[in-house]
Specification:
Blueprint: H1 11-19, H2 23-26, E1 40-44, H3 50-57, E2 61-65, H4 69-78, E3 84-87, H5 95-98, E4 104-109, H6 118-130, E5 132-144, H7 158-166, E6 170-175, E7 191-199
Parallel strand pairs: 1-2, 1-4, 2-3, 4-5
Antiparallel strand pairs: 5-7, 6-7
């Protein structure tokens, strides 16, 4: 089962749901963690491009990774942007993005980490770290709640993630508390923790 299993089959409903909220509404509790000055951003799991488009509108150049064909094609056709570059790629290795030879100022990944199993997560951290400049920041979310039928998802533990991330040269900047971050679609059985890290390079080989 692929990491994006189940999304293509429900793409029409999901596109409508994702696009029903603005970038500012979806990320109201952690907007301050996004960069203010224009920079290069890699978004991993860009979905319909809602957030990538907003970041371009704020002056950034965005490389958007999305393995679900329906999301990616819809986004490219509906909201073309000259500073928005789309890639059919995925964690844990991001082979197509790695081939670019680009390092980014900021990496953003929402609702992706739970699709990776334990064996893939270290490889994913390695790939992401290698794509970041020293001093660059990573903003990532972690999903807590039941797993829907037909989806490839695994339990997450933020403390384990932070311990592993330290091995790849990441330092914690800020962490939201689970109780403070409700699900934007008002799903009472789901909550999210957001973590912002900085790549220091210390300890990374």
């Amino acid at each position: 089962m692929s990491t994006n299993s189940g999304y293509e089959e429900d793409a029409k409903n999901l596109i409508e749901a994702y696009e029903s909220y603005s970038f500012e509404t979806a990320h109201c509790r952690h907007l301050h963690l996004f960069p203010s000055a224009p920079c290069s951003i890699l978004e991993i799991g860009a979905g319909t491009g809602r957030d990538a488009r907003a970041l371009v509108d704020h002056g950034h150049e965005v490389w958007a990774v999305e393995p679900t064909d329906s999301f990616r094609s819809w986004a490219e056709e509906t909201h073309p942007k000259t500073k928005l570059h789309w890639f059919d790629d995925a964690l844990p290795d991001l082979p197509k993005v790695n081939q670019l030879g680009v390092q980014f100022d900021f990496v953003f990944s929402s609702a992706v980490w739970m699709h990776l199993d334990k064996g893939q997560r270290a490889s994913a951290l390695d790939a992401v770290s290698r794509l970041m400049k020293n001093g660059a920041e990573l903003l990532i979310s972690f999903r807590y709640g039941p797993i829907p039928e037909g989806r490839r998802m695994f339990a997450v533990n933020v403390d384990e993630f932070l311990e592993e991330a330290e091995k790849f040269g990441f330092e914690l900047i800020e962490r939201t508390q689970q109780a403070e971050t409700s699900d934007v679609f008002n799903r009472s059985d789901l909550s999210w923790i957001w973590v912002c890290l900085q790549k220091s390079g210390v300890g990374y080989e």
